[in-house]
Specification:
Length: 152
Amino acid sequence: MAQVYKKQGMFQWLWTIALCLLCSVTAQAQLSWSTRSQERQSKLTDEQIVVEYPFVNPTDHPITITALHTSCGCTTAALAKKTYQPKETGRITATFTIGEREGEQNKSIVVQTDDPAESTVILRLKVRVPVRWEMSSRFLYWKAKEPRNCLS
């Protein structure tokens, strides 16, 4: 019977340690993002799509964004400043230039920080660009000895 109590006590002790570790990791989490993924539908007249990724620093220490990398040259990312104090908010502004692109476009922004809790974050942007024009071939034919009048 004493061994059963020892095993239960050991299990409760391990469970308490695991719970404390989980809570401490959550409390030390990196920048908190309102959203990490966005979708947009562009119009035929749009030249660019601009989206914002708001965040807050929920930690008790400053966090510095050390780098922003976009997946291609058609997307840029901007930041008002690099270091954010505890409880301070900020936003990354991403600009996707449509150019000659059509169809679904999937872009990403890699955010690197000095916070060891989560030093890399990937933000995603999906833009649906309408087809500007479509060309479909039409085939005209006439039967033998039929008048060729295209206006009727």
